[in-house]
Each structure stands twice: as structure tokens, then as C-alpha cells.
Design goal:
Layout: E1 15-17, H1 47-55, H2 60-69, H3 75-80, H4 87-98, H5 102-107, H6 114-121, H7 125-131, H8 136-145, H9 148-152, H10 160-163, H11 172-179, E2 198-201, H12 210-222, E3 229-232, H13 239-255, E4 264-266, H14 270-279, E5 287-290, H15 295-300, H16 305-313, E6 322-326, H17 342-363, E7 370-375, H18 387-403, E8 407-411, E9 414-415, H19 422-432, E10 439-442, E11 453-454, H20 458-468, H21 474-482, H22 499-509, H23 516-532, H24 550-568, H25 573-578, E12 582-586, H26 592-597, H27 607-619, E13 627-632, H28 637-641, H29 646-663, E14 674-678, H30 682-693, E15 701-709, E16 719-727, H31 728-732, E17 741-747, H32 754-772
Parallel strand pairs: 2-3, 2-10, 3-4, 5-6, 6-7, 7-8, 12-14, 13-14, 13-15
Antiparallel strand pairs: 1-17, 9-11, 15-16, 16-17
């Protein structure tokens, strides 16, 4: 799996494996937690003295709660069970932590697994010896008063859990003061140096169309934006599709002779990228992977410590290394936080990255090329909800990343079901610039056309560079001069904001002899085609050069407003009556607000629904069908109800499954009844499968096709189909989760056509069956 990995959340468009940071991937249902309370502390008391006084001996659960209670408030910590119940508790927890010695934290890990062992192994022992007897309060004072060189003389002696406790003791202003001191630039570049702000161009397409990707890169270049990586999130994570995107990005880099200046990357699972590199040597530059802060959560991404270390070793002799994405909250939303607060778990991810960076340094001749993107607001309101929390989270993560010696950028982002507006994001960006992040994401507008979330536009970069006096990496700035976007006096030219001019330069570099007029005419037509597929291209500017042109600004606002309406939409009784043989079910969500703010409520079925499904199962009299179709409203009921969306898919997939069975000489039975779930999330489909197939033949494969409305926010009202195929015993043991689920996404009459999506579904099912039943041939089976 991957994160947006689950990320996904695919507001996107074809087939991908369900990866983590998705919004549809939500938290395991948790028992109601009692707020932590620390009523009083004694003068000079530390964490361990307090625990012994209260419990009579050391208590690991209380230890985790005290450490977590010292955090600034976030909803995710509250769900984990480690959030402070009130401000007095928070201040008391911080007092205890401030009095605690580094060595005591070092010797009392919050969670031990292979990742923690790696962190211990890669913590500098000599530096640790210098500081182990300091209290955390003394460490804070040192970090705020000493120079960068002095800080780097001790920071590698800190374990990740200790680093994860530092921001707990600091205000926003103190975190900025610390962040302003530490810089970890990439080798032989200014990326991450003081006074520079980099950009990852994120040319995502709802259909992985090469032209959508090309033109977003050209668009970024026209605003002199993009210098750390050209990084695409693919819709289809199959090897051939990923290879096509890799080659598309490589072509831009090669044509403009930027091979030693900027790498490219396709953010599929790292194993897929490795397959592409093996099959097509030279097609892969930087390799990507999402990381989590516990072994259990990394399993969701199909990641282990050993696997990632081996990939670092495989970069021997290469210029470019690895790119990781992280973000607070991925562990608890996958039921894998192990009782540890989100900030410490985020720090453990950076410890993972630091260890990998050390491995890269052994094999890369110019130095370790590794950077990290902190995707702080991608999951949703179950992690945190406000713009102030977004800023706080980013400041915490920046400090922890820098103290690990990492080159760390920010995706200052929010989902459309958080209470963060387009204007709020501008405010967040400007609050964070003094903390000197290495880079930000860069899109034509704030709205990602594939992932359906809000981030940073190309013109936001222009504004931030202008306001804060920040520069683009020198080598890339020279390129922008070379293609005529910037003049010899470092001023923007008349070609600023003109992606067709960049296209013209691209074709000249390829030796195209046509006239400028002919190429411009072709470019205008191509942009129309790209925009018709739901990918906006920024051209020109508004009142200020950093403002979107008025028409485009209007479009972005309309997407935002439509998303807010879509989030509140419900499947109507009239629409449900049009679904053949509908069996209605509901979850524990009380209403749409409860569904959005408390994702776990949408993962568990109501008692009445469980009873109804058990009745359906019993009606089969031991002859369970091969598959069950489930239809949920998800985050956008409009995606299900829009004309020409649901019914063409239902009719086609039933026909294709029947034909596939006949071709293989078998009868494939799809239950004729369609289960329609109100306020349903992805895991509700898993529960339905466990109820229906838990008593079936333990050795026979059974599947659930879960059709669900995905994140709104683009011109498409898209839905996805989550495909889970497992043996009866797996359903009975309830060992069903995202790691064995695949999907077809961004299905809409304006994106991936429903009938085409049905064909993709059948292809995926065949592949899954083939792997689960190795002796069978994938062709003709279902």
C-alpha cells in the first residue's frame, strides 16, 4: 500500500492499490477515552517520579499518557487516549517532562520494535554521552541559545523519541527560532540552504494522461517554480503505467538537459518503481516511499526496515537517492499507534529517514540525496481540524526533521472536509515561512486535480519568494534564465506565466523546425484538451503576479463550494428506490457531521443492519455467492447519484463477471441484492464481508466490491470501487483491511467511464485470484 499514500483516497482516476493517508482509510473503532488528568506535581518532580508516586511503580500506559498530555491539543491524540483533558494537565505534563533527564527517556522507550532498534543503532553514541545527564529543560535552553554548529554537535546523539519530546516544551515562536538556525541542504545544491525556498512540482492527472503531466510541468516552469523534484502521484500503480509516467517526466528533464539539476519521481510503491527500473534501465531517478512510525503501520505500506535499507544500498554510485513522505496521524488511523502520541510517532519516522540517509552516505559519491515531505493536513479532521493546528503541526515537524539532520519540506495542505479555507491556507503559508521549510508542493492552483485536496499553487510560490526574499536553487534559476522566463537582472520577462512559451522552448530543444505561430496554435489546443480532462492550467495572472487569473480563480472557488455541498449530501429515498434489489443498511454515524468528524462511526454497522445482513446470509442456506456488491455514499453521495454513474457500472460488472465465469467453465454467482449503506466508509464494507462470508467454505475465495463516493473537490463527482478478495477463513478471522484491498478510482462520466471501470475491476479481480490461487490461470478466471 501507499500513503496518500492510502492515500487513497483517490480522488483520482483509474486503478491503484489502496495506500495510507487516505481519508477513506480511517481509524479503527476505539473505545471512548477518558481525558488524562494530572492535578498536581511536586517541585522538581520528573515524569518517572510522578509515575512512581501515583502508581507505586513504573507504568508504561501512564508514561505514554504523560508524554502525550504535554502536546498541544489535536483530536488524534485524544482518540489515541493520550491527550490532556485540560490546560492545567497539559502544563503539568510539560513541567514533568522539562525536569526529566535525557538518559531516562533514552532508557524507557515508548514503543519497542524493529524501527526503534534501528534508531538506537544509528544514534551517535559519543554525542549522546555528552548530553545524557541533561534535563529536557536544559536541552531546550541549549537549542534556543546556541549556534547551528553547536547544535549539530549534539543533535545526532538524540534518539527520535527524545527529539519528539522537544516541541512539546516550546511555543510556536520558540519553534520558529529553533527552525531558523538549522539547515541541511542537499549535496552540491542550495536546496535547503538559508534564504532558499524549493518546490516539488506535483503534476497529477485524473487519468495519468501524459499531456496532463507535461503541461503542468511546463506551467510550473513558466512561473519559475520547481527545483527539488518533478513528482507525480499516479492513479494506476501497475508497472507499465508507472513506467509511462516515469518516461514522460524523464523526457522533460532530458530534453532541457537538466539531468544533474532536478530529478523526477513517480510516487507508486517502491517495489513497483524497482520493477520499472529493472525492466527499463535509466527510467527511474529518485525513488519514493511513504513511511510510518511503527512496524505495524509500515506493514500497511508493505514496508520493513530491512526493505528500505536495502533500497538505500541499491542506489550505489547514483546521483539521486530516496524521497519519503510522512505526516502525523497515519498510525492511529490504521489502528497501529500502540498508545503513543502522534508527534513522537512522527519523530520516529524521521529517525527511520536519518538511518536511511546514513546508509545512502556510504554509497553515493556526491553525498546522500534524501529529502522528506511532511504532508501535515492530508488525512482530515480526525487528526486535527483548524488552521492554527495545521501551523502548529508543521512547526513541530520542521523542528524534529531539522534536528534529525534531514532535508524536510512541507505540504501545507488540508482536505475539503476540514474547516480550513482557501484564504486560510495563504495565512498558514505566511505563518510558516519564517521557520524556513526546505520546499513546498507546487500545483497550477491550490486544488489538486487528482487527490482532491488543497495545497500550494505555483503563484503562491511567487508570492512567498517575493514577500520573504527567498530564492530558487541556483542551478534551476539559471535554467529559468536560459528559457527566457527570467532576465539577466533576475526579473520576470513577458513570458512569465506562459506555459506555451515553455512548450515552444521544449520543442526547439527537440529540433522542431515549425514556426512559433504553429507551435503556439498547437499548444493552445493541447491546453484545451488538458483542461477538458479536469486539469486546470494557470496562465497569466490577476491584479498581482501571484494572483490567479480571474476566471481560474473563479473555477477554484466553485470547486471548493461544490465540495462543501457534496460533503453534506445524502442518498435520497427516490434514488435508493432506483437501485435494483436494494437492501438498506446504516452505520453508527448519527449524521453527516458525525460521519465527517468521527470516521470510526462510519466503519461500524448499526445493530439493526448487522441483524439484517445475518438474515440475508442465513437465506443462502450454506450456498454463499462468490461476490457481494456494496454501495455507500462515502464523502460524496452526489458521485453515486449523478446520472450515468452507478447503473452503467452495476450492469457492466455483473455481465463481465458472469461471462468470465462461463469462459472458465465455472459459474460465478454475484448476490442479486445490492447492499446500500448510509454513512458508510471503506471498513464498513469489510465488516459486511465478514458477516456474509465468515461462515462460508474456509478455502473458497469470496469477494466484496464496495462502490463508494470519494473526496469531492474537482470538476468530477467521482466514486471508487474497493475490491477485497479473500478465502472464507480470512473473512471468518476478520483479517481484512486495506493491505489486501485494491481499487479502481475516479470513476465518473467525465473521468474514467463506468463501463471502462468495470473492465478494470475484472482485470484486478483476475490478478488477485491468480495470486491467491497460484495454480489457477488468471485469464478466464474471476
Amino acid at each position: 500500500m501507499d500513503r496518500r499514500d492510502f492515500l487513497r483516497l483517490c480522488a483520482a482516476g483509474a486503478v491503484i492499490q489502496y495506500v495510507v493517508q487516505s481519508e477513506e482509510a480511517v481509524a479503527q473503532t476505539a473505545p471512548k477515552v477518558i481525558p488524562n488528568s494530572i492535578k498536581e506535581v511536586l517541585p522538581g518532580e520528573d515524569v518517572f517520579a510522578y509515575i512512581n508516586r501515583v502508581k507505586g511503580s513504573f507504568d508504561q500506559t501512564l508514561y505514554r499518557q504523560v508524554i502525550g498530555a504535554s502536546n498541544a491539543f489535536k483530536e488524534g491524540d485524544e482518540t489515541i487516549g493520550v491527550g490532556a483533558g485540560d490546560e492545567k494537565t497539559r502544563q503539568n505534563a510539560r513541567s514533568l517532562l522539562s525536569n526529566t533527564k535525557i538518559k531516562d527517556l533514552h532508557e524507557h522507550p515508548l514503543h519497542v520494535d524493529d524501527l526503534q532498534k534501528l534508531i538506537w543503532q544509528t544514534t551517535d553514541k559519543a554525542q549522546y554521552e555528552k548530553i545524557k545527564n541533561w534535563t529536557m529543560g536544559e536541552l531546550k535552553e541549549f537549542l534556543l541559545t546556541k549556534s547551528e554548529a553547536e547544535i549539530k554537535g549534539i543533535m545526532y546523539g538524540l534518539t527520535s523519541e527524545t527529539i519528539g519530546c522537544i516541541p512539546k516544551l516550546m511555543s510556536n515562536e520558540e519553534l520558529i527560532k529553533l527552525d531558523q538556525k538549522i539547515f541541511n541542504p542537499l549535496p552540491s545544491t542550495k536546496i535547503g540552504a538559508k534564504g532558499y525556498l524549493g518546490a516539488r512540482i506535483q503534476p497529477n492527472s485524473p487519468t495519468d494522461h501524459p499531456d496532463d503531466i507535461f503541461w503542468q510541468v511546463f506551467d510550473g516552469f513558466s512561473y519559475a517554480t520547481g527545483d527539488i523534484v518533478l513528482g507525480n502521484n499516479p492513479v494506476d500503480s501497475q508497472v507499465e503505467s508507472v513506467a509511462t509516467v516515469e518516461k514522460t517526466l524523464k523526457d522533460v528533464v532530458d530534453t532541457f538537459k537538466l539531468k544533474d539539476v532536478i530529478p523526477w519521481c513517480v510516487l507508486s510503491h517502491i517495489d513497483v518503481q524497482a520493477e520499472v527500473a529493472k525492466k527499463y534501465p535509466g527510467s527511474v531517478a529518485t525513488m519514493f516511499q511513504s513511511l510510518a512510525g511503527t512496524d505495524d503501520c509500515n506493514k500497511t505500506f508493505d514496508v520493513t526496515v530491512e526493505k528500505i535499507i536495502n533500497y538505500a544500498k541499491s542506489k550505489k554510485g547514483e546521483r539521486y537517492g530516496l524521497y519519503f513522505e510522512t505526516g502525523q496521524g497515519s498510525e492511529f488511523t490504521n489502528g497501529a499507534a500502540s498508545g503513543v502520541d502522534m508527534m513522537v510517532l512522527e519523530s520516529r519516522k524521521y529517525g527511520f529517514c536519518r538511518a536511511v540517509q546514513m546508509e545512502l552516505a556510504k554509497v553515493q559519491p556526491q553525498g546522500a540525496w534524501l529529502h522528506v515531505n511532511d504532508v501535515a493536513g492530508f488525512i482530515g479532521p480526525e487528526v486535527f481540524r483548524t488552521r492554527e493546528q495545521l501551523v502548529r503541526c508543521c512547526l513541530e515537524d520542521l523542528a524534529m526533521g531539522k534536528l534529525h539532520g534531514l532535508n524536510l519540506g512541507l505540504d501545507i495542505c488540508s482536505t475539503l472536509h476540514m474547516s480550513v479555507s482557501l484564504d486560510d491556507l495563504d495565512w498558514c503559508q505566511e505563518q510558516l515561512m519564517p521557520a524556513a521549510p526546505v520546499y513546498l508542493i507546487a500545483l497550477p492552483t491550490k486544488n489538486d486535480p487528482m487527490l482532491s485536496y488543497l495545497s500550494t499553487s505555483f503563484q503562491d510560490h511567487v508570492r512567498l519568494r517575493e514577500k520573504f526574499g527567498l530564492k530558487v536553487n541556483d542551478a534551476m534559476w539559471a535554467f529559468y534564465k536560459r528559457i527566457g522566463i527570467v532576465d539577466k537582472n533576475n526579473k520576470y520577462t513577458k513570458h512569465f506565466g506562459d506555459p506555451i512559451w515553455v512548450y515552444y522552448q521544449y520543442l526547439l530543444a527537440k529540433g522542431d523546425k515549425r514556426s512559433k505561430e504553429a507551435i503556439y496554435a498547437e499548444g493552445k489546443q493541447k491546453i484545451k484538451e488538458v483542461e477538458a480532462r479536469g486539469v486546470d492550467i494557470a496562465i497569466g495572472h490577476g491584479k498581482n503576479i501571484w494572483d490567479l487569473n480571474p476566471k481560474l480563480a473563479e473555477n477554484v472557488t466553485s470547486y471548493y463550494n461544490d465540495a462543501k455541498i457534496s460533503l453534506k449530501a445524502e442518498l435520497t429515498p427516490v434514488f435508493i428506490s432506483t437501485i435494483p434489489n436494494a437492501v438498506q443498511a446504516s452505520t453508527l454515524s448519527k449524521d453527516r457531521d458525525d460521519y465527517i468528524l468521527h470516521p470510526a462511526s462510519g466503519e461500524k454497522l448499526s445493530p439493526e443492519s448487522v441483524a439484517a445482513l445475518e438474515k440475508l446470509r442465513d437465506s443462502w442456506a450454506g450456498k454463499a455467492p462468490n461476490a457481494q456488491i456494496v454501495i455507500s455514499d462515502g464523502l460524496n453521495a452526489k458521485a453515486i447519484m449523478d446520472e450515468g454513474h452507478l447503473m452503467p457500472y452495476l450492469e457492466e460488472i455483473r455481465k463481465l463477471l458472469t461471462e468470465a465465469g462461463a469462459a472458465a467453465g465455472k459459474t460465478v454467482v454475484v448476490e442479486e441484492k445490492n447492499i446500500v449503506v448510509t454513512s458508510g466508509r471503506v471498513r464498513a464494507g469489510y465488516e459486511i464481508g465478514c458477516i456474509l462470508f465468515g461462515k462460508s467454505d474456509p478455502n473458497k475465495l469470496k469477494g466484496v466490491l464496495h462502490i463508494i463516493g470519494e473526496r469531492p473537490g474537482t470538476m468530477h463527482h467521482s466514486y471508487s470501487v474497493y475490491i477485497t478478495v479473500a478465502k472464507g477463513k480470512t473473512w471468518a478471522d476478520k483479517k481484512i483491511d486495506h493491505d489486501i484491498t485494491k481499487l479502481v478510482c475516479n470513476i465518473a462520466d467525465t473521468a474514467l467511464a463506468p463501463k471502462e471501470a468495470a473492465k478494470e475491476t475484472l482485470t484486478i479481480i483476475r490478478e488477485m485470484v491468480s495470486k491467491l490461487a497460484p495454480s489457477s490461470r488468471s485469464q478466464g478466471r474471476s
